Amino acid sequence: MTRGAVFFEYADVFISTEGRLVVSDQVCERVAEVLKVLGHPIRLRIVQTLLTEESCVKNIWSCLDLPQATVSQHLSILKGKGVVDSAREGVSMRYWVSDDISKMIITSLMEHMGMDCRGACLDK
User: Fold this and answer.
1) Domains and CATH numbers, the chain
2) Which of 2, 44, 58, 84 is the most exposed place for a label (fewest CB within 10 A)?
3) What is the residue-level pLDDT of the chain in tens, covering all 124 positions?
4) d(Cα 68, Cα 6) in Å, to the nearest integer?
């Protein structure tokens, strides 16, 4: 199974008689939404951090060396677009990448660029 095959599980995608990949308008719109929301460097870094494991806001902002308010604002945008999800754990909120299309896009881009797809804070 190729890495892109995950797409088939979530969308109206099929192979045409000419052997081309055909994607529904709905899938194209979702991919465009994801690309827009990931188009900000801070959001991209947050998603990279959350790719391999969930984390609380404090860990994310300390890892990325960003103000807590900035991280919270960007997490809110990511959550609003369905890229991440969260759950309360005691007094903190834990976040994780919940959208498989987002995972596939960011992993593919990073691998293509020769970047490590694991979390951004593994060495901290």
Assistant:
1) 27-112 (1.10.10.10)
2) 2
3) 333 333 344 446 555 556 666 677 777 788 888 889 989 999 989 998 898 889 999 999 998 999 999 999 999 999 999 999 999 989 989 999 998 888 888 888 888 877 766 655 644 4
4) 34
